Amino acid sequence: MNHSGVTVWLTGLSGAGKTTICDALEAALRARGCKLEVLDGDIVRENLSKGLSFSKEDRDINIRRIGFVAHLLTRNGVIVLVSAISPYRAVRDEVRQKIGDFVEVYVSAPLAVCEERDVKGLYQRARAGEIKGFTGIDDPYEAPLSPEVDCPTQNETLEESVEKVIRFLEKSNYLPAA
Ligand code: ADP
To answer: pTM to 2 decimals?
Structure first.
């Protein structure tokens, strides 16, 4: 398989569809024989970032750690799929600069849609005041200004989202055309 290393960074609100797209992308890329690794924000927080809070400072540390690992893998030819809310633009851009081969995918379903989906029941708990500092409710989300790929999952199917990312990777020569 003649692909090169790249970090595909999915950012967006909770419930926007990052994990769903990431899982489908993983399957599609594995079927093409790609070497890949997935860094899921929730799983990183149970391991590499265990004990970190959701303060701005700790969120930034978490993203820098994910970025560090993604960089090591990317420079060794791996396709890294990162799925993390990563709400702050500055640290996303910092990680982008470090990694270089970086494709930002903005999973851009708006808050109302994410809250309606409420996949994990977290929005309801945040609205009830049981969770403080929840992104989109009482904590900021800074949307990317020029993401490589935009996936408004309220308007497109999972297949369309995955196809857009794959097409972008092909167009940018990270992945040979199918
Ligand atoms: P996140 O990882 O961003 O918190 P999830 O992937 O866990 O979000 O949840 C997104 C929800 O939205 C899932 O229930 C998924 O089935 C649904 N969904 C609806 N349309 C789409 C789409 N086009 N792409 C991705 N997810 C979608």
So the answer is: 0.96
